Amino acid sequence: MTPDWTTLVQAEELAAAPGCAGLAVVDCRHSLADPGAGARDYRDGHVPGAVHADMDRDLSGTAPAGSGAGRHPWPDAADLCRRLGAWGISPRHQVVAYDAGDGAFAARLWFLLQALGHRRVAVLDGGWARWTALGLPQEPSVRMAAAADYPPPTFDAARLLDAVQVQAHLDRGGLLLDARAGERFRGEIEPIDRVAGHVPGATSRPYADNLIDGRFKPAARLRTEFERVLAGRDPADAVAMCGSGVTACHHLLAMAHAGLPGARLYTGSWSGWIEDPARPVAIGGV
To answer: Which of 51, 70, 76, 268 keeps 20 to 30 A from 277, CA to CA?
Structure first.
């Protein structure tokens, strides 16, 4: 029987389902400092049956400079679906995504599929770090999947915001959660983008606050924390952002795991915001 995992899956559960019909595993390991590291790590060893997704090539699109799309542009739905089909994934599959540990990159694939309407997709809690710590099986060979058909639907546009929509959202009193580390939000350091600071009106909640010992906090604890941040708002009135629309998806996953689904994504995030030098920048804060 094909599993029905929609937010997180534990390593023990995945290990108990090898060869399960309709199960697809995707290795999303990535390094911002070394974009080729994920593919090398995959070749050295991965969860049996997994295919590898490259963050820049497979989980991001292309966009002209100045478009506001940021460092990891949101991909075209048809391009993503062709890639899914090449990996042997169809809309009927249960997909499990994992990365090196904390889920920050795997959550990008989780939300990409969610935005396509693919419900049965989950992130491996603790990722490769926990899988190997438990001594679970590894596969060193590169997996060549049999192609499948993934007819391209459209993304749910209501869950994807650009800079103009984000400003309108803030003007209405909406919540914008910035998933970057606090020192980046405050503008104390900026190791990646050319401008430091944050979108005026944004609220800092580093995605690491969703974790304890490298795994997601219990759902009840996450619900309490996010309800405090929401301050009475509906989860759909929350928009997540980060540096480029990747780690922000960690918040969307954490909220869904907590029973608070429906939050949205600022796809261009900080790197997209600062493409227009006329946009305001705030420094300091919590």
So the answer is: 76
Helix (H) or strand (E) holding 165: helix 163-171
Boundary (domain end) residue, out of 99, 118, 133? 133
Q: What is the pLDDT of residue 96?
A: 98
pLDDT(19) > 80: no
Is residue 80 scored above 80 in pLDDT?
yes
pLDDT of residue 144: 77
| Radius of gyration in angstroms for the set of CA atoms belonging to the chain, rounded to a whole number | 18
| 272 burial level (CB within 10 Å; 0-12, 13-18, 19+) | buried
Q: pLDDT tens digits, residue range 214-240?
A: 999 999 999 999 999 999 999 999 999
Q: Is the pTM of this model over 0.90?
A: yes
Indicate which residue of 28, 81, 242, 249 is catalytic.
Answer: 242
Is 242 annotated in the active site?
yes
CA distances to 7, 34, 46 from 184, rounded to whole Å, are: 28, 20, 32
Range of the domain at 74: 8-133
Q: What is the CATH number of the domain that holds 254?
A: 3.40.250.10
Let me know if 128 is exposed, middle or buried by CB neighbors in 10 A (0-12, 13-18, 19+): buried
Report CA-CA distances (Å) from 68 to 61, 80, 153, 187, 197.
13, 20, 24, 20, 17
